[in-house]
Amino acid sequence: MRIEAERARVLVTVKATPQPSGKYGDTVCVAGVRIDQPSPSWIRLYPIAFRYLGDDAQFKKYDIIELNVRRRDGDTRRESFTPEEGSWTKIGHLPPWKSRHEIMRDLPSTTTCALIRAARRDHSAPSLGLVYPREVLGLKFSAHDPWTAEQLQKMIGRMDREASALIPAGPIPSVLVAPRLKVQYQYLCEDPICTSHVGRILDWELTSLQNRNIRESGEGLKQIITDKFLTMMFDRKREAGLFLGNFELPARRANFSVLGVYYPKREDVLRAGPTLF
Q: Is residue 109 within 8 Å of residue 272, measured between CB atoms?
């Protein structure tokens, strides 16, 4: 039986980097805060073939959108919904940082250790969270593999279908360029027994930063990434946190990646202590 759609209002906080998809060409996972209910709560929106959307359907981080959503079949993560294609409308944008934090401060705070412990006990435990590190130890870099022949064919297949359609669903983008570097944060969360975590950054901003600096490589590219994702975002004048999310595959539910960074100025933040699950 088809699950009935409901209308949701969402503050977009996360746009993960696009990934190849057989059905959609490439898709993006979007996450944010649902603000149409009595208290704010996390929501995950997947899949969205974002690069195939027209300009009028595009949205940015910290935009507020309204859309129709349905619970995702087979995904036991409580925050996961399928967006109804073409149903979203941008209704506003929150500028930095006070207006954003008026919503963000009402979300339960947590730690990475607490998220992992809960996910190991229960696959339907919280799968999204905002974690304020006690200390960021640094960035770890490694080479990103090029797309496989299978991944390339998935993307080319969608492009071919769109090109041959009598009425294309939207713009036909170029083949998605694979990032050159994978980057991870190494950090301590605020859990008293934390010994450190390593979380890969899946933020689309990281991919875009690499693409904008296509002539840079090696240590030069690493420095550009460090300047933004470490020096700027975790400046002492900011109270930075990590947007974390885990994987749909039940066997990997206890693995949390960094979907983005929340980096308001300290003067705009009034934050309560962590609430552990």
A: yes
Local structure of residue 229 (DSSP, 8 states): I
Coil, strand or helix at 214: coil
Which residues, 6+ apart, have CB-to-CB distance to 53 below 8 Å?
Answer: 170, 171
* Rounded alpha-carbon distances, angstroms, from residue 136 to 60, 132, 213, 222: 27, 10, 25, 17
Do 268 and 101 contact (CB within 8 A), yes or no? yes
H/E element holding 159? helix 149-164
Residue type, 134: R
Domains in the chain, CATH or no CATH each: 6-100 (2.40.50), 109-144+179-268 (2.40.50)
pTM here?
0.92
Cα–Cα distance, 272 to 277 (Å, whole number): 15
Residue 109: pLDDT band with limits 50, 70, 90: confident
Q: What is the pLDDT of residues 175-224, one digit of tens each?
A: 999 999 999 999 999 999 999 999 999 999 999 999 999 999 999 999 99
